[in-house]
Design a protein that fits this description.
The complex is a heterodimer.
Chain A: H1 2-37, H2 55-62, H3 65-96, H4 103-110, H5 112-115, H6 118-128, H7 135-142, H8 159-184, H9 188-196, H10 201-229, H11 233-238, H12 250-260, H13 264-294
Chain B: H1 2-6, H2 11-47, H3 68-75, H4 79-110, H5 116-124, H6 134-144, H7 151-176, H8 180-187, H9 192-203, H10 205-220, H11 224-229, H12 238-248, H13 253-288
Helix pairs in contact in B: 2-13, 3-13, 4-7, 4-10, 4-12, 7-10, 8-9, 10-13, 12-13
Classes of the chains: A mainly alpha, B mainly alpha.
């Protein structure tokens, strides 16, 4: 009987053992290890690691303008994604919410870019933006704006914005799908009742759609921020961070510090700071949205 | 005459207004749709041109299609190898995630043991907390375990990466599943594992399908880990292969585009076949969560 109970006890754990083992080794260990390495000057090779205290962090905050530039770049792209991309997504979702013909076909098409990889998308757009053979320049000279043509991704003035456009092209369909699902979950009777009372479309949007959509807006914004701040594939396959540091983002900086410069400890400190920034953003966002919901 | 045109109660006016709105709505939606499809189509059209014509000939339907570009990309540019690698990684990671996640999800939903809820939260915690930079330590770990530049080193972290979603999805599914069938099997003398394997798992097929789709897309499109872990060309998946090809033959656009089409085609096929499940999966998770 005792043996049976013992078997019973362990038998249940065996079901979760593989998942737990993988979690411990490949999630928890790296997570903790990042913090530990961030206070060392480890180069990735030497068997010994020197404890340097908070020196990495001090250097990061006082003497690493490129890292903060990369953060600013990511913020710029994120800001554009939050405004331009999500407004476009919302506008399209509102259009498709009206039971229009072919609504499902549009949905299938808009979600096409999000299922592609950042590498593929970047490599295609690379060529669209090309200075000599790019489609965009061809198009501009076709409509008589030839003087605007340039190597869009190699020009310091346009590189960051061009990368942001690629990112938004890839991302708006995702926001669209989620926002549309949110819109479709609003009971139709609310609109019908408002219409009977003579409410205009704008009044209905302001008083019915927007308040009910707040949780969906929050979700979309948080995921947009977290996703965009960690942008990486599209940068690697287009500019690689250049020209200069004009399109560097935190992840590319971390990779360069780690693989390029063999400063593993320092790279971990960057990862910790970047992670805290992301955490802070999500917290602020949740706070703000809670306050908004109470108004 | 004027009176009729501006009379808002007039049926014709209403109809005209409705048609105008509908026209502009579709015009806008179609423009955006073209913007979505055009770059892909253009990549495809370019893959059929020659190195000499690709920069001059901007046609979207090339007159003489050079399908041999695909043969060359497939054989000489190594895309066959990258493709088979991607296929292998995708299949193994999907199998790993489905098997391990379903077992854990079944336990979290059906079996009673101490710490069940806490362990469940622990298992799905990585879904909530973004940890950029933990890939540095992952690299260090794989190095220590001598898993750098091995298939296993690329597969295991990805199986782990798929587990939180898998466990969450399948536990929710098992929670909603009636227990009668399993109970009667138990009475007939089936052990826990056989109940799970022969009864619960087959019933979970719809949820497993959704999970598999998401894991397939994630693994097929993965790049960061491939870049960190794999430097041997024989082990590289397509995304990594594309970047290597681009780095080595920066100007061979038709072949690069052929490689892109080879990379995209399976994703496209899966997406178009299963788009209903994919879109339902995203929105269900998002609107509920």
């Amino acid at each position: 009987m005792n043996f049976q109970r013992l078997r019973n006890f362990f038998g249940n754990y065996i079901f979760i053992l593989p998942a737990l083992a993988l979690f411990l080794v490949f999630s928890l260990y790296p997570f903790l290890k990042v913090f530990q390495l961030s206070v060392t000057g480890w180069d990735g090779i030497s068997p010994q690691t020197a404890f340097v205290g908070l020196a990495n962090f001090k250097d990061l905050f006082t003497d690493n303008p490129v890292f903060w530039l990369s953060m600013k770049n990511a913020f710029t792209i994120t800001f554009l994604a939050l405004t331009v991309q999500n407004l476009l997504a919302l506008f399209l979702a509102l259009l498709c919410d009206r039971d229009i013909r072919g609504g499902n076909i549009y949905r299938v098409i808009f979600y096409l870019p999000p299922v592609l990889s950042g590498i593929v998308v970047g490599l295609i757009w690379n060529w669209i933006y090309d200075g000599n053979y790019g489609l965009l320049n061809h198009f501009l000279s076709f409509i008589g704006l030839g003087d605007l043509s340039r190597a869009w991704l190699a020009d310091a003035k346009t590189a960051l914005f061009s990368v942001a456009v690629i990112h938004m092209w890839k991302g708006f369909g995702w926001g669209f799908v989620i926002l549309l699902a949110g819109l479709q979950s609003i009971p139709r009777e609310l609109y019908e009742a408002a219409r009977v009372d003579g409410a205009s479309s704008w009044v209905m949007f302001k008083n019915i759609t927007a308040p009910l959509m707040i949780p969906v807006f929050i979700l979309v914004s948080i995921l947009t921020i977290l996703g965009t701040m960690q942008i990486f594939d599209i940068i690697i396959s287009t500019t690689g961070g250049g020209p200069g540091y004009h399109t560097e983002v935190p992840i590319t900086r971390i990779l360069t510090t780690m693989i390029g410069a063999s400063k593993f400890g320092y790279a971990c400190a960057m990862g910790v700071v970047f992670g805290l920034v992301l955490l802070a953003i999500s917290m602020v966002q949740i706070r703000v949205s809670r306050a908004m919901r109470q108004v | 005459m004027d009176g009729i045109l501006v009379d808002p109660t007039d049926v014709n006016y209403e109809k005209l207004k409705k048609n105008t709105v509908s026209f502009f709505t579709h015009l806008f939606l179609i423009t955006v749709s073209v913007a979505c499809i055009f770059p892909l189509w253009w990549a495809f059209a370019s893959s059929l041109k020659t190195q000499g014509s690709v920069f001059k000939d901007l046609s979207l339907f090339p007159r003489d299609a050079h399908w041999e570009n695909y043969v060359e990309a497939w054989t000489r540019a190594d895309f066959s190898r990258y493709f088979l690698n991607s296929l292998f990684y995708t299949v193994t990671v999907v199998l790993g995630v489905v098997f391990i996640a379903s077992m854990a999800a079944y336990a979290f939903s059906r079996l009673r043991f101490r710490g069940r809820n806490l362990l469940f939260l622990v298992c799905i915690s990585t879904m909530m907390v973004p940890i950029p930079g933990s890939f540095i330590a992952l690299y260090v770990l794989l190095n220590k375990l001598h898993l750098i530049d091995t298939r296993l080193g690329y597969i295991l972290p990805q199986i782990n990466g798929g587990l939180p979603l898998g466990i969450f999805l399948l536990k929710t599914f098992f929670d909603d599943l009636p227990k009668e069938l399993e109970d009667s099997a138990r009475i007939d003398g089936c052990g826990r594992f056989r109940v799970y394997w022969h009864i619960a798992l087959p019933l979970a097929r719809p949820a497993i399908a959704v999970l598999a789709i998401f894991v397939i897309l994630a693994v097929w499109n993965e790049y960061l880990l491939a870049m960190l872990v794999l430097s041997n060309k024989d082990l590289m998946p397509l995304q990594r292969g594309l970047m290597v090809f681009q780095g080595a033959h920066i100007t061979q656009y038709p072949l690069l585009m052929a490689g892109i089409v080879i990379t995209v085609l399976p994703v496209l096929a899966i997406y178009l076949l299963l788009q209903k499940h994919i879109i339902k999966g995203i929105t269900a998770g998002a609107v509920k969560g």
